Amino acid sequence: MSNEATIIEDVHVKSVTSHDVHEHGDHGHHEHHETFLSKYVFSMDHKMIAKQFLITGMVWAVLGGLMSVLFRLQLGYPDASFPFLESLLGKWAKGGQITPEAYYALVTTHGTVLVFFVLTAGLSGTFANFLIPLQIGARDMASPFMNMLSYWFFFVASVVMLSSMFVETGPFSGGWTAYPPLSALGDASPGSKTGMDLWIIAMSLFIVSSLLGGLNYIATILNMRTKGMSMTRLPLTIWALFFTAVLGVLSFPVLLSGMILLIFDRNFGTSFYLSDIFVNGVGALPNEGGSAILYQHLFWFLGHPEVYIILLPAMGMVSEIMSVSSRKPIFGYMAMLGSLFAIAALAFLVWAHHMFVTGLNPFLGSVFVLLTLLIAVPSAIKVFNWLTTLWRGNIRFTPGMLFAIGFVSLFISGGLTGIWLGNAALDIHLHDTYFVIAHFHIVMGVASMFGMFAGMYHWFPKMYGRFMNNTLGYIHFWVTIAGAYLIFWPMHYEGLAGMPRRYFDFSIWESFKQFGELNKFITIVSMIVFAVQILFLMNFFYSIFKGRKVTSENPWEANTLEWTTPIRPGHGNWVGEIPEVHRWAYDYGKDGKDFIQQTTPVGADESTH
Amino acid sequence: MSLYLSIAIIALIFIVIFQIAKASEYVSVLKGEEVARKQSNKINGFLMIAFMVLGFVGIYVCNEYLFDKTLLAQEAASIQGEKVDQMIWITLIVTGIVFVITQILLFWFAYKYQENDNRKVFFFAHSTKLELIWTAIPAITLTVLVIFGLRNWFFFTGEAPKNAMVVEVTGKQFGWIFRYPGKDAVFGKKYYKNIDPAVNSVGIVWDDKLAQDDILTEQTMYVVKGTPVKLIIGSRDVIHDVGLSHFRLKMDAVPGIPTTMWFTPKFTTAEMKEKTGNPNFAYEISCDQMCGNGHYSMKGIVEVVTQEEYDLWMAKQKAQYLVAFPEKDPSNVPAASSAKTTDSTAKTAVAKM
Q1: A509/B286 Cβ within 8 A
Q2: Among A159, A239, A602, B30, which is most buried by a count of CB atoms within 10 Å?
Q3: A407, closest residue in chain B (CA to CA)
């Protein structure tokens, strides 16, 4: 403990002298008496904030995952009754059977929570915070205080979202996309009453959190790179996180504007989204002239970039881990960079492909078909570059590497069905069927989750100074990838039968009821996969305290800067001066040397590439 | 009780797995990190190739088991559907080839290039030629798919043929209302504030002469085999979606903004019963846009019939005007009292559409 304190002290002295940090000696002195509150709760250390994001994200992942198991029970066993559901959900599962209200609330919350709280905050919140300063060679974020605020806004958003589960009319239940008029009219659905107000508040707080974080990431990457770390020497993780932050900063405000208009329509009698509405039992509403489709434009203007906000960090981490574990440079660094840029730019120009069947102008639709399918080109470049990175490498199957390979497999599978759905003439048949569920769960949900797992296994030693258990990691990987395919592959067939999403029960449908057995099968597999994630959590938390200790600074023999810090870095990351960078991050297997860290000066006899 | 028992069993299994995993970690520490890593590397390398092989077997089995349950196993019921199916097959072949090649390469490389002391890593960081190849090939392939897709898209969303019959579809929580224009083949005006769930479910403006022969039905829509039908789609409350999976089409029903869709049915319902061998077959309209707690039960039926059957059915329908004002119906005994004043709201009605 005292050892750590001296390191911190040391760091501060150095930072004051060599980097003109706006802190004076006194402040450094206070660090000696770091309280529990300032170290673990209101921490301004980017590493601690990263862990806060990660663990909050994990809590939400468990809740969101559990919700999916509950509604899968309904889909797999529509006629059975499970008494424990009544003990768990009370009036929402009278007699052990989930009510439609509860079913739709579960589906909606599952979607919202996993997309925003787990795969946005939990993924880029964790790894942007953790990796950006460590990999670019900075003591902390540009604004540690803003960074702390970013987490606490997320925390409050989480509390509000959680509290919406307990209001009498139930949480919001109109789907995570929250299309008005359904989301605007409490009379059309009980979930759109108080539950929806809380949902909007939670989302707005979340957007604030994400903007505070994103601005910080961008500022840090652009301004605080260590000496020698030019933009083209940055590891691909950082590039991916950079584009992610840019996407978030440019698109989240649009969603916020959409939410504000929705608040106005709900509470102040405006008609942005409402027109010509007659609600059963209430009568005709006075609102005229609004457009329900306007909301969809605003929503998907964030909603589509959001997909890449989720996916890009995973891509970046996979590139890094794949290169390290293949002991080979990432193939086509500049092409990887270019394709990240192309994806980020195109992300803003494809949103209306979610709206092909809203009656939008067919010509507009055709432009969006073209731009959407264009995204397949940079995506294909990335896949082929990953494959070439593996080719003639010397692969070490660490759990992180397994998940990275799994990511590529899932990205291919889910990406290819995107070519189906991006083509409007096919979307007009497959839109809002199980085909879509299969597509986005594989390519965005599970693939990004795999990227996240890869990152967690790979950087766990840096986070906690210990390793996670490998055997459990292998079990986790193989069960999860097999399970993911078993769950989502057959759903393509359900979609090809036209089976619609968000149905509580299919028994009255002559066209869709043939899949009863399959739905049961999917439910069982999803429970097994969920159980294995619990095993992963046990591994994670056990290893924090009891895992095998890391004994060298650079356990994966990697080139990037985070592996030049002490095994358990204090606030400030490096003891002494921040190292200077002399080369890119991917000199693996060069000139017969297994790896050359970025801090190694370029030798006179070294070949150039 | 059984719940606690199963939780206990699951917890027990977890603990056993956990202990085994911990034990294996101790063993690997004893053996030395290097040796342990190589052993697990071999196992995982083998699992890579095993997973790929099992995966392809699984895909085959899945297809055997499920293909007949999809719509691809039966002929599309509209001429639009034929084009959709054709496109599905083309896209399936293109993406299928890419899928097989890339997945094989991925798992094969992972297996083949697992760690081996004798291998010297090939330092291969860049190749403009390769990058150009795999930029150009996907770009060309996608152009082909886009051309196919857009031709169909413009056909689907283009003008309906002149001889198309027109039906207005209105979604509501949780059912469908259909309006036929009657003898004059023109819909009368409607205004949502005129809606009266009992007799005027879409808000027809009765003053409009064109509206007085309009016919309203619920839940079942009759259309004629071989005759194009154009749907004018709207909604009374929230967004719904007219999902016609057998015709391979769908279109949202948005309050305040009418949308359209047209298709030409190829088989009557009776013919489809025979073709599918299912006596309960029906062209079901599924609501495909989340619309509230009854979303899953929002079902309508398209009854495809021959022209004669249609004419017969149509002859039996009564104009909604006469349903709303029975005293105006010549087939009723004329009422002695003077005609009821028409709906006052109708006077202020604004023409919509």
Answers
A1: yes
A2: A239
A3: B106
